[in-house]
Amino acid sequence: MPVEVVTGNHAAGYALSVAGEANRTARGAACGIYPITPQTEIVERIAAFPFTKGRVVAVESEHSAMGVSMGASLAGARAFTASSSNGLAYMVENIMTAGFYRLPIVMVAVNRTLGPPWNIWADQSDTLMLRDFPWIQLYCSDNQEVTDTTLLAFRLAEDHRVLLPVLVCMDAFIVSHTQGETDLPEQADVDRYLPDLDLPHRLTHDDPRTLGGLIWPDVTTSLRLETHEAMGRVPAVFEECRSAFQDVFGRDPGGMMDTLEVEDAEEILIASATVATTAAEVVKRARAEGRKVGLVKMRMFRPFPEEALRRACASARRVGVLDRDYAAGLGGVWWQDVRAAFQGHRDDVVIQDYLVGIGGGDVTPGLIEDVLEDLRGRERAGPPVWTGIATEKEVMV
Amino acid sequence: MVEIRIHGRGGQGGVTLAKLIATSRFLQGRSVQAFGLYAAERSGAPVQAFCRFDDEPITNRNLIYEPDHVVVLDPTLVALGITGGLKPGGWILLNTEESPASFAQEFRGHRVATVDATAIARGHGLGTRSVPIVNTALSGAVARILEIPLEEMLAGLAHLGFGGANVASATDAWNAVVTAEILAPPTEPSSDGARTPAPAFRGPSFVSGAGGDLPGIRTGQWASEQPGRQQYVPPCNDVCPAGNDVQGFLHALAEDRVDDGLEILLRTSPFPSVCGRVCPAPCMAECNRIQLDGAVNVRQLERLAGDEGKVELVPAEARPERVAVVGSGPAGLTAAYHLGLYGYGVTVYEAAPQVGGLLRSGIPDFRLPPEVLEREVDRIRSLDVEFITGSPVDRIRLLDLARAHDAVLVATGLQELRGLQLGVGGSDVVMQGIDFLDRVKRNEVTLNGEDVVVVGGGNTAMDAARSALRLGAATVRVVYRRTRTEMPAIEEEIVEALEEGVVIDFLTQPLSLEAEAQADGDGSVHGLRCRRMELGDPDATGRRRPVEIPGSDFDVRCTRVILALGQSPDLSVFPEGTEVREGEALLGLLETPLYAVGDLATNDGTVAAAIGSGRRAAMHIHQTLTGEVVPQGERTRVRSDVDQWNDEVIRSGALRMHLFERHPVDMGESIGMDRRATTFDEIHAGLPDAGEARRCLSCGVCNECDLCVTYCPEGVLKREGHRLVFDYAYCKGCGICVTECPRNVVFMSHL
Fold it and tell me: CATH classification of B2-179, choosing from 1.20.1250.20, 2.30.30.40, 3.90.180.10, 3.40.920.10?
């Protein structure tokens, strides 16, 4: 497939489909689909894909969409789906179950503001509410990242050292509906990158049973620890998958996090998704002005790459976290984990939270400049700074 | 980096234009972005799309606030402002037939180009005539002004699968773009660049209501259907020959508003007390309550309203025109009554010594006591109505009346009595029923010990037979050539006649009166030779025709024969050259409008029909004399405050009969059989109260039972006076009000 000008949704739908198709020599592809703005185009593309082996099942709710994908995954199919916002909230029980079942399902989530009141624009609060479930979470900032991360996600999820489902996230409209040049890999390359799924705990007709019967606390604890250990192996396996991706497709799909000008930076911005790439513009400009600022662009949120983050911010005196999300009573979700990562390691760093682009507000370079300006003047962290209430000027709460 | 902002209207293809530009640049190795500003926009709403391209990878992900160029798909958007943030010297490309020079002044400091992409797109059949798709044409124009080779733009089109008309369209536009000289920017310093910080702002509260409204979706907006109130025509109202609002007066009586009930009846009929006694009540035959437990006793309720109600008549302001009414039967009196209410001066000419026509002479006292008639005639007299009795009108006099009045109305009824040749015709033994009843009224008849035979099956036959019994006849037989089913008499009258001892010989045809051996020497005993009949095929009236059975003759002993075979109109009163049209209007050589009404015109034979005819004639006259249109039926079919008016008659199938409770009909009291046999006392005592009216189902007309209000689960239905008010802002359209409405008043309509 040559480079094309497509939307993020198109890219995601394509990547999920060719990944599923790559399992045709094994148990095939499976996807439960249910539409919700702004991801509907993804499941439409999946529904239109001519799978050699497998099944796309249109169901009556997000809960069932994940149910279909779970059942198929347990039967050995390469299973996936897509959802967004309140659809994810409705799916929660099965999202959690897929994690505890250790199923290598990949779900593309288009980050959309949770309602009510209704709002269709970008906000990460929907997937970040799933942060305590056994799912790997990866955040993408453009169509190419969506494509590549989706493919990588299958390889990561299906690795026997991991066996965890993966959420691949992108911003509503800013990526999902924006056309941009995108290299959509050929099926043959995808086939090479994604060998047949081999699910060790796959259900078979030889041994019919259900999973998830009643267990005792000690067994539960043991299973949680097993999950924790699998999560702990994810960063290393991710790097392997990244390297293999480069071998097959000839390009770097990006890391768990990417850094920009952090080596000697005194102020570092930490951001994800499209806010991060817009911030990159600002950081480059500030560097050109001689200011010692840097950027950490986070792709992986779960497991939270604490160590790598501390390393990236080794020179920082102040860290500004840009959260396009809100955890009630706390502030930004990313901010919580950044604080936790530094706690006890680098207590000298000012870690300030900025809530930007909540509910899909446009995050402009100007806004990020204001953030940098604010950060530079801080000797200690304050409560989260709210921005974007009908004006670009921040409002202190 | 080049940034382009596209202004268009939903459906014009602005996003696709952005993608076309982006694709053409992408094919030249640029990094690109194309996106729309998505919201819940509908077709035609102002929308924006954006396109970026650069030699370096683009990482910016915000909207475009300071575009290098602006493309406007719809010239009407110019008024909304399209230059915001546009960089100095940037292009403004407008889709318009006007020249760019005409915009140059407005857009000083910017380069202006125009192209009539609409005409080009139409010319190539792109989109519809009303919504041409202009994006491919504009892509060519964009290429031209940005100095992108046309081939590169066409390559973008081809890459996205656009060919044929789209390529031609883009090419045409590339060639057709006209540009204007750039004018120097305004001398005033532009405020652009100086960023004015907006004051701190807080949006509306979710909980307190402070700061304005959040967009709420009221429950009423969920509805796909909406209830409303409709009205049908109840069958009683539909069938009443007098045009009475039967449901309306019953509703008033049901609420013990007897005066109101009478007032409703008096809108159409001056004779509620009379009709409440003698009307055949077709309303009861059509009553939907028959399907439940028997018709509402409308006749007796009308009598109750007429007898007990008190209403002050309020005639309209007196008018100068005068109308003559010839004949004072129910048709003439009703016409006089309504004309009086309209304010006309009315003179009624009656040949008999007293007014009332057949009401006075033809209906026996036991059915209609004379004082009842008198009371209702007095009510008419209270208007500007003069009665001249003992004053017959013939053809000559009618012409005199026509000259002296503005309208003349003839209501002389049926004066021609049908006879029967019985061989000894003219004999004292045989008399006409109408004459008999008149003489009975005047106490001129005794029938002690006589054997009376009445011929006929109508009300006159029944009245004559029952009067004969009361006058001491030894036997009273009615001979009728068909069966009881075909008898035109009111069913109740037949029942009561049989109760009182009248014998009816059905399927019997009198042939001749034979003199018999005289038992008592006075020569008055005869035998009426009769023949048995059987029913054959239906005749023109739909009734089965009686056919003689040969050899079935037999004699009925009698001392007196009363003929009640019906009557026909005598039209000799009218001048030659006039004709009756449509039963009522009589159009002729006279300038004065002349009308024939009642039985004379309709030959219907019931008081109720005569009332209806008289009223319609009065409305006709009023309309003719004043030009004021009086809609037929408008006064009886009172339109309530409903959302939908149905002219259909509602039948029991359209009612929710299971919601009605059964309740036996109140027949009222009658006097004892001893008094019925010997006196002319009125046999019915009337109803004890108006409770019977509460049996009315109020078919298809709201009677404010308010079950809908009671059962509305949302509490969005309430009664305000006589109005039913739906709060559509909160009504979800569940339809429970419809299923709980027993009478099909509440209905749902799709939104």
Answer: 3.40.920.10
Among chain A, residues having any CB pair with chain B shorter than 8 Å are: 3, 5, 38, 117, 120-121, 141, 171, 173-175, 177-181, 274-275, 277-278, 280-281, 362-366, 389-393, 395
Q: Cα separation of B394 and B391, whole Å?
A: 10
Q: Is the full-model pTM beyond 0.95? A: no
Show which of A249, A274, A303 is a domain's final residue: A249
Q: How far is CA B302 from the centre of its chain?
A: 24
Consecutive H or E run containing B175: helix B164-176
Whether A278 and B61 lie within 8 Å, measured CB to CB: yes
B196 at A interface, C-beta within 8 A: no
A106 strand-pairing partners? A80, A166
B104 CA to centre of own chain: 63
What three-state secondary structure class fits A14?
helix
Q: Do domains B2-179 and B322-415+569-626 have the same CATH topology?
A: no
Is residue A226 domain-shared with residue A266, that is, in the same domain? no
Judgement on whether residues A176 and A80 belong to the same structural domain of the protein:
yes
Pairwise CA distance, residues B687 & B690, whole Å = 7
Structure tokens at A385: 């700074």
Closest CA to B240 of B532, B607, B486, B491: B607
Confidence of residue B196 (pLDDT cuts 50, 70, 90): very low
Residues A212 and A302 in one domain: no
* The pLDDT of residue B571: 77
pLDDT tens-place string over residues B219-244? 888 888 999 999 999 999 999 999 99
Both A28 and A96 in a single domain? Answer: yes
For residues B140 and B583, the model is more confident at B140
pLDDT digits (tens, 9 = 90+) for B588-600: 556 777 888 888 8
Q: Among candidates B725, B662, B667, which has minimal Cα distance to B697?
A: B662
Q: In sequence order, what are the residues at sequence separation of 6 or more whose Cβ sits closer than 8 angstroms to the Cβ of residue B404? A: B322, B324
The CATH architecture that domain B416-566 belongs to is 3-Layer(bba) Sandwich (3.50)
Q: Which residue does chain A place closest to B202, by CA atoms? A: A389
Which of B546, B458, B478 is CA-nearest to residue B507? B546
* DSSP code per residue over B456-498: -SSHHHHHHHHHHHHTT-SEEEEE-SS-GGG--S-HHHHHHHH
How do residues B679-727 score in pLDDT, each as one tens digit? 999 988 899 999 999 999 999 999 999 999 999 998 999 999 888 899 9
- Give the DSSP letter string of B709-750: HHH-TTS-EEEETTEEEE-TTT-----HHHHH-TTS-EEEEE
Residues A119 and A182 grouped into a single domain: yes
- Which of the listed residues A223, A249, A275 is the one where a domain comes to its end? A249
Interface test with B, best of A7, A178, A274 (most B CBs within 10 A): A178
CB contact under 8 A, A173 and B38: yes
The helix/strand/coil state of B387 is strand
Residue-number span of the structural domain to which A17 is assigned: 3-249
pLDDT tens profile B388-431: 999 999 888 988 998 899 999 999 888 888 877 776 545 678 88
- Give, as one character, the DSSP assignment of residue B589: S
Give ipTM to 2 decimals.
0.85
Other CB atoms within a 10 A radius of the CB of residue A229 amount to: 10
- Indicate if A305 and A329 belong to the same structural domain: yes
**Same domain assignment for residues A194 and A326:** no
Question: A139 with A195, same domain?
Answer: yes
* Confidence category of residue B197, pLDDT binned at 50, 70, 90: very low
Q: Are B462 and B489 a contacting pair, CB within 8 Å?
A: yes
Q: Using 50 as the pLDDT threshold, list the residues of chain A that sit under it.
A: 391-397
